[in-house]
Write a structure and sequence with these properties.
This protein has 222 residues and is an alpha+beta fold. 55% of the residues lie in helices and 12% in strands. The strands form two sheets. Strands 1-4-2-3 form a four-stranded antiparallel β-sheet, covered by helices on one side. Strands 5-6 form a two-stranded antiparallel sheet.
Length: 222
Amino acid sequence: MQPEFITFKKFDDPALAQALTDLLEEAGIEHQTEKGGFSFDPTFAASSELSTEYRVKISADDFTRANELLNASEAEDIKHVDKSYYLFSFTNAELMEILEKADEWSSFDHQLARKLLAERDIDVSDQKLAEINQNRIDELKAPESTQREWVIIGYIFALMGGVLGIFIGWMLSSHKKTLPTGEKVFVYSEADRKQGKNIRYISIVVTVVAVTYRVIREMTMQ
């Protein structure tokens, strides 16, 4: 059975995306590449526009291994980085934030931040890093705050019928995000998801009733 591929990294530079796919290829990790949401040639020959988003997708089971490969590949590069590189001017707190939010930074910056902190006698041991990573995962797993406004808007459009109410209901009840580990979790709380299901069902019922009424009315007027 073909595994489900989900976005591992996004790039606006095709060369960076190509470098990652080469690394995955060498490690024997199955992957897919997409450009702007559409299927794209992994040679990246079709375009060089920096505004275009390139998404490299892999199986969720390979996220940890792929991250380890990225970190290992950057380990040698950070030894030769120029001292003018912007991270050298970062404070300890700013460098620590890179470690705490590794998913928002490149593997190169993450590895360099760790190296700089170690040189400043800050504890960035494997155990410390594991604690930081787990705290980040727990933070990302937490659902968004109560979506009171969207729930109200959703019910309004649900009673009006139409696609918008169905979409809002689907968004609240089903929308998920992908964690750095590859795990997918719901974005909204259980309470908001229940409201989303209600909104979706009401929207569908009202829409069906409205369409049926219009059809019957038109038939009777003929």
